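Protein entry
_____________
===
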Amino acid sequence: LIHGDLFIGGSARHCKTNHSELCQQARKDNGQKGLSNLPFLTPSRSNICPLWTLPKGLTIGGSLELRSCHNIKKLPQNLQVSKHIRLFGCRKLEGLPEGLKVRGDLELVGCRSLKELPKGLRVTGDLTIDGAAMLKRLPENLHVGGSLTIQNCHNICLWPKNLYFGNNLTIRRCNKIESLSMEVKTGKSVLIDLCKNFCKLLSQRYPWS
């Protein structure tokens, strides 16, 4: 249990957490005995964090922020974060845990290996997805309480059923998106910018009209 925020960055001076304690917990979770096999490594002085994983069942009372953690492929199951989740430059991250509920904002920036988001993902605040090159669609029953921003996601092309967001929708530089499904329900405005192949809105009644 971490009562406040957990920030893990690319160098030791940026890491606001006790890596030795995390190493011990991760070793217990994975049944590893040798120090050479630890999934956590000592932070380097480079801009890349050598972290491989986080402990199972991690509970954070504040926000979680990971920067340039290039080795992390997934977040642990039963992860609980009370505020925001911000993941920047986690290049090998492939997905998020099933049943994840984000009580603040969810930012996924530069997570270029991200293939999918869990079904029924609920974000109380804003959801930002930027530079997820392998993401092809959003999950079914996605619920975003704030604004939804999707940009530089060049392979995303399919809209899910029952997509809801309470504020604005921004789609920018997503070249495979050709149309916007009117099953999308938005509270305010829609901005579609620099999407070269976007050509139509479906003919159903627009929920914001």
